[in-house]
């Protein structure tokens, strides 16, 4: 009987202990996180695109006279300056023609002088009524024809000088010379393309932007030149800097984009026509904007959101409006204030009002 009483007492004690534990509130669970403060800074608005470099001038060097090529002093692919000799065509026949036409001018001048003196002499005879009016008119006509012959001979001489000059072909602009289509000893005919010359200072960059960016770009142009940075596919090469040069006069209705041309000085000759370039177009700067680490961003059905940590180390969800991205940071246009703490690691288990602590 005594044993039964002991067992009964133990059961009552255990039952009382269980009820007491059941009445105790469950302990709040905390989740480890890492957080960072929202900062504030001036944020540049950058439009990104891709494009290709294009020369402002590509010139086909053509023969303007026929003849044998006697000299090609340049090296294919070399940079040449404006005025440098590119090709010499045999000048001998054109020099001979020049001398002949000079003689023709002298002959025409002599004939004109004789015709004029004859007219003056016969004019005096006409005054004395020794010759008829018709005869005097014939001498005047002869003098006028001789004067016209002088002008024609001078024009022919000038043309021969021009043709002689065409035998020495010089670079009309500075740039890189291409591969030579004709070699020394070949016969060049009029209008044959002998070589191509490409201007590389400056270079144009041709690219497109969405019509959605057109308004902000035009507004930026009203305040001054719009700066552009171009990066090569080979990241070891330094980027090139330039400015917007021109906008096309209409939006392409098929693609919803507008064509744009930028200009790069290319002083170091680093860039090459036809290269593919990644573009950053600096439109404007947003002053004093809240920025956070991109790692804080989460995305849901209502768009981007972040977890904000309050003073009691509980999190709340904030939907935010995003601005431009700057490296590993992103601008927040609406939904967050500077110096608020946001979660950057440990999002997985979080929910509204979840308790958190800083992970070591």
Task: Walk me through the topology.
Layout: H1 2-23, E1 30-37, E2 39-54, E3 58-62, E4 67-71, E5 79-80, E6 85-89, H2 92-127, H3 133-166, E7 168-170, E8 175-177, E9 187-188, E10 193-198, E11 203-210, H4 214-221, E12 227-232, E13 240-247, E14 257-264, E15 276-293, E16 298-300, E17 303-309, E18 315-319, E19 321-326, E20 329-334, E21 341-345, E22 355-358
Parallel strand pairs: 1-22
Antiparallel strand pairs: 1-21, 2-11, 2-15, 3-10, 4-6, 4-9, 5-8, 6-7, 8-10, 11-14, 12-13, 12-15, 13-14, 15-20, 16-17, 17-18, 17-21, 19-20
Helix pairs in contact: 2-3
What does the model show?
With 360 residues, the chain is α+β, with helices and mostly antiparallel strands. The protein folds into 4 domains: 30-42 and 288-358, conserved putative lor/sdh protein from methanococcus maripaludis s2 fold (Beta Barrel); 47-56 and 201-286, Elongation Factor Tu (Ef-tu), domain 3; 61-89 and 167-198, OB fold (Dihydrolipoamide Acetyltransferase, E2P); 91-166, Orthogonal Bundle (Helix Hairpins), CATH 1.10.287. Helix content is 28%, strand content 39%. It is built from 4 helices and 22 strands. The chain has helices at residues 2-23, 92-127, 133-166, 214-221, and strands at 30-37, 39-54, 58-62, 67-71, 79-80, 85-89, 168-170, 175-177, 187-188, 193-198, 203-210, 227-232, 240-247, 257-264, 276-293, 298-300, 303-309, 315-319, 321-326, 329-334, 341-345, 355-358. Strands 1, 16, 17, 18, 21 and 22 form a 6-stranded mixed sheet that branches. It has a 6-stranded antiparallel barrel with strand order 2-11-14-13-12-15. β17 and β18 form a beta hairpin. α2 (92-127) packs antiparallel against α3 (133-166). The longest helix is centred in the first third of the chain and has 36 residues, at 92-127. The protein is elongated. Mean pLDDT is 87; it is low at 10-14 and 16-23.
């Amino acid at each position: 009987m005594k044993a039964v009483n002991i067992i009964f007492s133990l059961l009552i004690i255990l039952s009382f202990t269980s009820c007491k534990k059941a009445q105790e509130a469950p302990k709040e669970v905390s989740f480890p996180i890492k957080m960072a403060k929202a900062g504030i800074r001036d944020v540049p608005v950058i439009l990104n695109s891709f494009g290709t470099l294009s020369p402002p001038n590509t010139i086909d060097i053509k023969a303007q006279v026929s003849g044998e090529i006697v000299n090609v002093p340049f090296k294919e692919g070399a940079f040449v300056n404006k005025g440098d000799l590119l090709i010499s065509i045999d000048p001998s026949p054109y020099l001979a023609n020049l001398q002949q036409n000079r003689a023709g001018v002298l002959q025409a001048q002599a004939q004109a002088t004789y015709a004029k003196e004859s007219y003056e002499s016969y004019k005096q005879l006409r005054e004395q009524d020794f010759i008829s009016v018709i005869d005097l008119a014939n001498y005047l006509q002869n003098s006028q024809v001789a004067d016209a012959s002088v002008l024609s001979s001078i024009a022919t001489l000038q043309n021969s000088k021009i043709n002689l000059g065409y035998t020495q072909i010089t670079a009309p602009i500075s740039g890189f010379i291409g591969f030579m289509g004709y070699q020394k000893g070949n016969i060049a005919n009029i209008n044959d393309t002998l070589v191509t010359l490409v201007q590389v200072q400056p270079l144009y960059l041709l690219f497109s932007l969405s019509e959605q960016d057109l308004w902000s770009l035009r507004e930026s142009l009203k305040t001054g030149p719009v700066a552009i940075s171009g990066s090569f596919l080979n990241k070891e090469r330094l980027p090139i800097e330039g400015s917007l040069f021109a906008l096309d006069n209409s939006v392409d209705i098929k693609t919803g984009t507008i064509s744009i041309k930028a200009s790069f000085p290319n002083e170091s000759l680093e860039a090459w026509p036809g290269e593919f370039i990644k573009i950053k177009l600096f439109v404007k700067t947003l002053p004093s904007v809240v920025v956070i680490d991109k790692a804080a961003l989460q995305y849901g059905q209502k768009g981007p959101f972040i977890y904000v940590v309050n003073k009691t180390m509980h999190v709340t969800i904030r939907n935010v409006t995003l601005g431009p991205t700057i490296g590993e940071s992103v601008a927040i246009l609406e939904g967050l204030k500077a110096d608020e703490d946001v979660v950057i690691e440990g999002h997985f288990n979080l929910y509204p009002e979840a308790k958190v602590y800083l992970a070591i």
